[in-house]
Amino acid sequence: MALLCLLILTAVWIVGREALSISDCGAYARRPEYTDIAVVCGTSTIDLALQICPVIYTGYNGSLLILNHIRDDPNCHGTLDTSVAPPVVRFSFPIREGNACGSNFLTTSAPGTGIFSDFSNIQSVNISGVIRSHDPTMGTITYNAELMYFYSCAYPLEYLVNNTQLDVSSSSIAVTDKNGSFISTLSMSLYQDIYYTKPLVMPPLGIELRTNVYVQVAASNLTSQYFVLLDRCYTSINPHPSNSTFFNLFVSCSIDQLTTMLENGDSQKARFYFPAFRFIEQQNETVSTYYLHCIIRLCEPSTCSTFKQCTSRKRRSAETTVVQSGVTDTSVLTVPIKAKTETASLSKEQALSGDQSANKAASVGLGIVVAVLVLVGVAAILTALSLYRKLKRLS
């Protein structure tokens, strides 16, 4: 009877004008299960949804759920949502160390594999915590079980971006933990001016060789916890780098002499530019089409300078070779860069020059023939006159 009274007294939770009791739960009133918490690992926030009816059934209410022992910050309290079935308590906090409602940030490092095999230090961050129940019972014993709901989000901090527009991947609900991604916050854009105000519109016949291509990789709606650092940018003939001829614009401290880095690892955008070139194996094509790819590291402002040091990462010289490791189709979206090879225009000039030379040669040859014929004609006339005079003397 005492337990029933406790349930009745603690099963009412008022948020604004909404009230929820155990009678409102109906079939959702049951014992807690580990699947009662759903985790959404977003790009700027982590969102938790906890079914409230099992909590009420156990003898607590939403106000007795404490996120990582943070009780004095209203931004870390839950909000009742009865618009869904079953009703839930929602928690949402930003991905910023020191302001993530007491969540733990653990950054780990491991050697890169696959497309990241050039780098000896690939980082990922795991953000975790727990929602605990607070038992208000005063005394020596309690009949309420302690509730603990753990959550965890793992974010890689290295990404391959190789197009000017990326599909924003939706974050699906996960049970207790999930691998998150910041990829949807990243974009790569091409510009035609050093002020990055005029987007580069690729002409159908390509841009002129040696035209500067200004590249910007930026993060939007990304937590201020991280800056953008370009580890490697390269071009390849095929949209998917696997088994494709490629050229490194830069890898770590190995930068092509014609690539200029303007900003890297100092904010949530990185900028560089390079002159348009062509691949030699495309010399017989009117337009040399190739694809730009960048490997991006997200690093905390205090650690970005460490990764910019040449000794902290592997280096590969900028050269043209063949990529051995592949990239899955789902992670590669491309927009081509088109450069004029000048083959066609040179051929026309050469053809025009050849035609003019041929015409000149024909004219010179015709002049010589005419001159020879004139000389032969004059010689014949002189010979005839000489014979005529001799015959006249003999007669």
Automatic annotation (TrEMBL):
<feature type="transmembrane region" description="Helical">
    <location>
        <begin position="364"/>
        <end position="388"/>
    </location>
</feature>
<feature type="signal peptide">
    <location>
        <begin position="1"/>
        <end position="19"/>
    </location>
</feature>
<keyword id="KW-0472">Membrane</keyword>
<dbReference type="InterPro" id="IPR001507">
    <property type="entry name" value="ZP_dom"/>
</dbReference>
<feature type="domain" description="ZP">
    <location>
        <begin position="40"/>
        <end position="317"/>
    </location>
</feature>
<dbReference type="InterPro" id="IPR055355">
    <property type="entry name" value="ZP-C"/>
</dbReference>
<keyword id="KW-1015">Disulfide bond</keyword>
<dbReference type="Pfam" id="PF00100">
    <property type="entry name" value="Zona_pellucida"/>
</dbReference>
<protein>
    <submittedName>
        <fullName>Zona pellucida-like domain-containing protein 1</fullName>
    </submittedName>
</protein>
<dbReference type="InterPro" id="IPR042235">
    <property type="entry name" value="ZP-C_dom"/>
</dbReference>
<keyword id="KW-0732">Signal</keyword>
<keyword id="KW-1133">Transmembrane helix</keyword>
<keyword id="KW-0812">Transmembrane</keyword>
